[in-house]
Amino acid sequence: SGRDMPGSNWHTYLYDPDGQSNELYYGIEQIGWNGHSKPKAMYDRGFDKPPELPQISEFEEVQQARAKGIDIFSGYRHVEKLPAQYNVDGILLPRPFKIVRLGPVYLFTENMDAAETFYRDTLGFIPTEEVIWRGARCLFLRCNTEHHSVALLPLQVRDALGLSAHSKCAAFGIQLANYRQLKEAVKFFRDNGVKVTESIPAELHPGIEYSATVRDPDGHTIQLYCSMEQIGWEGKPSPRELRKTRALDDWPESIDGAVDAYLGEPFLGPWG
After folding, report:
1. What are phi and psi of 184, to 5 degrees?
2. Average pLDDT of the segment spanning 36-53
């Protein structure tokens, strides 16, 4: 427990029954319009153990740094190396898509009952749906209105999915801004020699109708998607017979808008 630097988030780490590290955190450094992170000269506010309370506010922290003569705009600022050549909904960007948030994490577990108890009863995730895939029980849990934030899959299905044996992380999701950008991302990756597949089959991403996967250089699976079903006041997912998931190479040119398309966490923008 303590405070991470860089990042400025107050945190505590705990492990699930499979040894996966979970971070509980409060607050995280925000990168503003000028693109600068907090300078290293302000890392003296890091902690490696639970801090005494109360702590000073972020505003006061900046005021104290300025009083010490620290240049608060001297932090790291990333400069994109690729040319901004793609028209992404009216904004020129170096890729034809924009990642707007991190999505669900899909975890393999050696003991489904123990993992379910940990994520449901200890961390407080809410079970949304169960799926039986090739005889194996898979569980999808949420923490807000998104259909699932965590998926628990029994380790026995890892080989059947053809996923890397060096990790118990089956995949993690990244959400793109819209369906058009998702289609453009698939083309962009293929044009740049990156294999795009459906290594997470449709049955194992309920609530996400259009999904594609790529692998990073270490073999980790990344799920690309553009929207997720939202769970309303009744707490139930949509009936499975109403889902219209289609194979990657059979995606339509356009799709009908969903009634929950603009529900859930808002994206505040801008793109670049």
Report:
1. -65, -35
2. 94
